[in-house]
């Protein structure tokens, strides 16, 4: 059973979830969804947010039967030792693949926009080392860091707000002009970009407070992330228009590049600096969850040592996957498909099996 002193507060959980969801996808999300849903891309984001809320409720219902257990602990009680061992390994591999995808996208973006002459392996190594430094300590250290840097999201919001006066909202009219299948397909893209909430499978039992409070916090965090992504999508479409949106894969960065202030000449570099912090926080939480899974799998292994080992493993694997656009798209496609399996299908099946078999956490199981 996890000690209360080693748990985070609901307030901290809120910001950890926000930082996990608003990360690597900020820059390209408006373009990716627009290519599918056109002017109704913002509706796709809202639909995705609603579907994620349902998924969060599903995860919470599973967690309510095992309130002090992470996904790695409850598997043994629900489906038995052999099958649970396989699923534990698969979940660890899923978190590991997410880490690789994040570092690939980070390396490519930074190399293209800021440091074209700096080797990608150097940029990625710096990010991984910083993240390991935070993750190898208690989860409260990582949570506090997430709370502090969340002020950067306010800065992003304000920076983008300055261009609203130059937008034309006629570009998103008429509302719902696209077919329903197109909007749903765009919602699928938006859901993939909003990943991060699945970390609740590990973080729910690591948070203090009532179960109902944790659910409210998770739903509010996703609501905030959905609002933020909708805001970015609407501003991008109304600023550039449909003709230009097709041509720029990173619309938010181009918006910042076209604007400057008296004391800030390169607004895009300021935006990029803040984005890097968001990427780092996302990487940290996934690294923590991956480490958490290996700890429960191997037993009697220190969390700090494993965090270092997994961070180095991610870096070594990254060296074998050059961050080209084609490689990222292919890797992202398969990762997106896998995410539906690990985030929705497995928790749904586990909840069904737990209900049918009458499986619930007991005080003895909680203390074992």
Content-based structural category: mainly alpha
Question: Major sheet: size, sense and barrel closure?
Answer: none
Mean pLDDT: 87
Percentage of residues in strands: under 5%
Cα shape: globular
**What is the N-to-C order of secondary-structure elements (H for helix, E for strand)?**
HHHHHHHHHHHHHHHHH
Task: Specify the number of helices.
Answer: 17
Rg from Cα? 20 Å
Low-confidence stretches: 364-368
Q: Helix coverage percent of residues?
A: over 70%
- Cα(first) to Cα(last) distance is 7 Å
- Beta strands, count: 0
List the helices and strands and how they pair.
Elements: H1 10-21, H2 29-37, H3 41-65, H4 71-79, H5 81-113, H6 120-135, H7 139-149, H8 151-161, H9 180-193, H10 200-203, H11 211-240, H12 242-245, H13 251-257, H14 267-298, H15 303-319, H16 325-356, H17 363-367
Helix pairs in contact: 1-7, 1-11, 1-14, 2-3, 2-9, 2-11, 3-9, 3-11, 3-16, 4-5, 5-6, 5-14, 5-15, 5-16, 6-14, 6-15, 7-14, 8-14, 13-14, 14-15
Question: If you had to describe this structure to a student in words, what would you say it looks like?
Answer:
It is a single chain. The protein starts with 9 loop residues before the first helix and ends with a helix. The chain contains 17 helices and no strands. It is 74% helix and 0% strand. Residues 364-368 have low confidence and may be disordered. The longest helix has 33 residues, at 81-113. The chain has 368 residues and is mainly alpha-helical.
